[in-house]
């Protein structure tokens, strides 16, 4: 038989609420750990007096009674686990696990039995319901009636607040059954009554939560906070942990008391009581007890007369009364030498203390996170500036805490601390990037190789190279199109072959001066078709060499089938993640082999790209020359057709035309407007020549002069 039994998702009934946790049974005893608070209940095997197995609302339950009267209830078992538990109890605890069913008759008349801290209402031998007397906050009596009032359960939507019992009168003299009933209840009830004098009083202490100044009266079983507006009574049994934390300025101290259940003020719940002390404030304290009582109760932990710093006295008294250790910061030291980190949580600024077993943030709102409930932590880029970063913590229950605006210099210390505590870091491996450049560290949130990102980078490089190649080819065309001389080259040729015979050099000069504004408008008009160049831009050439793959992509293509065979049915996304993990875990020597293959592929690509670019440029130049030649031939054919109808006129005015053609006229003044005007003038002269007789020799001689 196994020496231990463990059960997950077991519920412990405490003050009417069901707390989820884990139950472990061993030879030494029974241990239950609360998943919410981390509180551990330990029952020694020698203390167990009885074990009861019964059917309850959540399946089956186990009730354990100890020799000192304490009762522990655990629910959530399956019916099939009875035999295993029964054998374990018989073998290791020497107890028989008895089966008892609850009475479900619905009767309201029965017998009340008091057993330890439990009140049981029975019908015959079967219990109907049980009431833990520690849940009772007040007990009042009336005529033949006893009323029990209960502590309010903050975790439950509906709470049982009151139960009334009718006690019939008896014939026995000298015994009042109602008073006897009430005394049995009060002897075990958790009734807070400020009877007697306080052990000591601390006056006007500064309290951060709840805010204000309070007098703290220390009683044997509870703590009384007395303020100007509110009073709180805190039983020592509700104190979970004590913390003593130094402020960053090294002049103040925080004393934090963790409470479960919390104290409440209206609808506000305070899970932490935070006191702020100055290190320079001293006090002399005298306990309201004689020395023998102090020695007997506290066993040397306290003395009747004590003196020292105020925070030391308060923490010392609380430690002795609550009987719990005080948690202090461990060996963590931040960039400035302090044991805490300045940060912001939600809308308030505060201090984050890395402890040996968790983190605690003070003070608004206070947060305590244990290491065993942390799923992972994450270092993220600051939302407003790169001079700070965020520290994110996600618990196993899915709750996320984000501590923001942490100074960049604190990253190294905090990362080393988290790494030493072996917490799961979501973006592990980014510490080196943080030291070199914060932007590189902040842009990545995951530690896995992203195959999709690699593919996007490769495609981006290809698009960029194609854009550069196209801009190299189209840049010459764009530059040439802005040159009026080259653009209007064909127009100049047409002007040379169809020069006007009737215009003189002076008229030509005046025409040039008058047509300068028209020439500029023409240039602006010619620029419009250039906007359509992107529409006619050629797509990617299918004959272009393909860009080489990276070392990772070469390895992935070679290993994809092997990964699929090792993990049948794996999805594409999971395959990429798995490949990233394998690539990251690969040794440096194996990666160098794939790097060499990638380098060889890159050299082959560059060589092929050079050959391709030379060939494509030659083809483009040949195409441009053929287009220009074809356009020139079309212009010449058009010019020859125009010259056929003007043979006679050309011969009569040959010498003036030749003189004008010999005169220099810059190409930049040539425009289609001028050529069209020249043609119109030529047509007018031809009409005049047809209507008048040919000139005589004398006229021609005078014209030549």
Automatic annotation (TrEMBL):
Matches recorded under Pfam families: HMG_box, PH1_SSRP1-like, POB3_N, Rttp106-like_middle, SSrecog, SSRP1_C
Start-end of Basic and acidic residues biased regions: 532-544, 634-645
> One biological-process term from Gene Ontology?
DNA repair
Species in which this protein is naturally found: Tichodroma muraria
Gene name in the database record: Ssrp1
Annotation: DNA-binding region: 545-613
Known Gene3D superfamilies for this protein?
2.30.29.150, High mobility group box domain (1.10.30.10), Pleckstrin-homology domain (PH domain)/Phosphotyrosine-binding domain (PTB) (2.30.29.30), Structure-specific recognition protein (SSRP1) (2.30.29.220)
Please list the residue ranges that the record marks as compositionally biased, kind Acidic residues: 474-496
Q: Which UniProt keywords apply?
A: Chromosome, DNA damage, DNA repair, DNA replication, DNA-binding, Nucleus, RNA-binding, Transcription, Transcription regulation
* Main function: Component of the FACT complex, a general chromatin factor that acts to reorganize nucleosomes. The FACT complex is involved in multiple processes that require DNA as a template such as mRNA elongation, DNA replication and DNA repair. During transcription elongation the FACT complex acts as a histone chaperone that both destabilizes and restores nucleosomal structure.
The segment(s) forming the HMG box domain are: 545-613
- Looking at the keywords, is Nucleus present? yes
The family database entries (InterPro entries) matched by this protein are listed as: HMG_box_dom (IPR009071), HMG_box_dom_sf (IPR036910), PH-like_dom_sf (IPR011993), RTT106/SPT16-like_middle_dom (IPR013719), RTT106/SSRP1_HistChap/FACT (IPR050454), SSRP1-like_PH1 (IPR048993), SSRP1/POB3 (IPR000969), SSRP1/POB3_N (IPR035417)
Positions with biased composition (Basic residues): 517-531, 624-633
Carries keyword RNA-binding?
yes
Task: Supply the CDD domains for this chain.
Answer: HMG-box_SSRP1-like, PH1_SSRP1-like, PH2_SSRP1-like
Where is the segment annotated Disordered? Answer: 459-551, 609-705
**Protein known as:** FACT complex subunit SSRP1
SMART domains, alphabetized: HMG, Rtt106
């Amino acid at each position: 038989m196994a020496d231990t039994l463990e059960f997950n998702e077991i519920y412990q009934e405490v003050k009417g609420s069901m707390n989820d946790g884990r139950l472990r049974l061993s030879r030494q005893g029974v241990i239950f750990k609360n998943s919410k608070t981390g509180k551990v209940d330990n029952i020694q095997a020698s203390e167990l007096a009885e074990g009861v197995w019964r059917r309850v609302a959540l399946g089956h339950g186990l009730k354990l009674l100890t020799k000192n009267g304490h009762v522990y209830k655990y629910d959530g078992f399956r019916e099939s686990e009875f035999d295993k538990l029964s054998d374990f109890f018989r073998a290791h605890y020497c107890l028989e696990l008895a089966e008892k069913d609850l009475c479900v008759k619905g009767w309201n008349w029965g017998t009340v039995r008091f057993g330890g801290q439990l009140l049981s209402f029975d019908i015959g031998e079967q219990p109907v319901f049980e009431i833990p007397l520690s849940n009772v906050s007040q007990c009042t009596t009336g005529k033949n009636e006893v009323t029990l009032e209960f502590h309010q359960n903050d975790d439950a939507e509906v709470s049982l607040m009151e139960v009334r019992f009718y006690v019939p009168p008896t014939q026995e003299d000298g015994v009042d059954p109602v008073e006897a009933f009430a005394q049995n209840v009060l002897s075990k009830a958790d009734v807070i009554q400020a009877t007697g004098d306080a052990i000591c009083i601390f006056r006007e202490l500064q309290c951060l939560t709840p805010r204000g100044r309070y007098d703290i009266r220390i009683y044997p079983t509870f703590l009384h906070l007395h303020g100007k507006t509110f009073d709180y009574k805190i039983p020592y049994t509700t104190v979970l942990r004590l913390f003593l934390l130094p402020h960053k300025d090294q002049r103040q101290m925080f004393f934090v008391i963790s409470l479960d259940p919390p104290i409440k003020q209206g609808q506000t719940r305070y899970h932490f009581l935070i006191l702020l002390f100055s290190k320079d404030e001293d006090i002399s304290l005298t306990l309201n007890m004689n020395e023998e009582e102090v020695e007997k109760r506290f066993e040397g932990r306290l003395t009747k007369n004590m003196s020292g710093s105020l925070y030391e006295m308060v923490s010392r008294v609380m430690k002795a009364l609550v009987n719990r250790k005080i948690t202090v910061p461990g060996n963590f030291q931040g960039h400035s030498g302090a044991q805490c980190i300045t940060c912001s949580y939600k809308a308030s600024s505060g201090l984050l203390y890395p402890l040996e077993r968790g983190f605690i943030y003070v003070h608004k709102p206070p947060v305590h996170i244990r290491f065993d409930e942390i799923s992972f932590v994450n270092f993220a880029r600051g939302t407003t500036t790169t001079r700070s970063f965020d520290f994110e913590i996600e618990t196993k229950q899915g709750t996320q805490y984000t501590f923001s605006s942490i100074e960049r210099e604190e990253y190294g210390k905090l990362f080393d601390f988290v790494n030493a505590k072996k917490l799961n870091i979501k973006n592990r491996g980014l510490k080196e990037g943080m030291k070199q450049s914060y932007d590189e560290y902040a842009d990545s949130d995951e530690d896995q190789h992203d195959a999709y990102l690699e593919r996007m980078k490769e495609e981006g490089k290809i698009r960029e190279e194609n854009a550069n190649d196209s801009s190299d080819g189209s840049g010459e065309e764009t530059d040439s199109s802005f040159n009026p001389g080259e653009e209007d080259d064909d127009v100049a040729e047409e002007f040379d072959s169809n020069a006007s015979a009737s215009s003189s050099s002076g008229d030509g000069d005046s025409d040039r001066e008058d047509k300068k504004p028209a020439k500029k408008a023409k240039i602006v008009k010619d620029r419009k078709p250039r906007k359509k160049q992107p529409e006619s831009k050629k797509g990617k050439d299918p004959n272009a060499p393909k860009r080489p793959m990276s070392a990772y992509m070469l390895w992935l293509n070679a290993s994809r089938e092997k990964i699929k065979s090792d993990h049948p049915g794996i999805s594409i996304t999971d395959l990429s993640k798995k490949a990233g993990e394998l690539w990251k875990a690969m040794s440096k020597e194996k990666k160098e082999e794939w790097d060499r293959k990638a380098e060889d592929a890159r050299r082959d690509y560059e060589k092929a790209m050079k050959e391709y670019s030379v060939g494509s440029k030659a083809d483009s130049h040949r195409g441009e020359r053929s287009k220009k030649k074809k356009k020139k031939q079309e212009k010449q054919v058009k010019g020859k057709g125009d010259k056929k109808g003007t043979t006679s006129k050309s011969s009569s005015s040959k010498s003036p035309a030749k003189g004008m053609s010999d005169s220099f006229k810059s190409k930049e003044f040539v425009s289609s407007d001028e050529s069209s005007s020249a043609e119109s003038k030529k047509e007018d002269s031809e009409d005049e020549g047809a209507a008048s007789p040919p000139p005589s020799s004398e006229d021609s001689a005078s014209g030549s002069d």
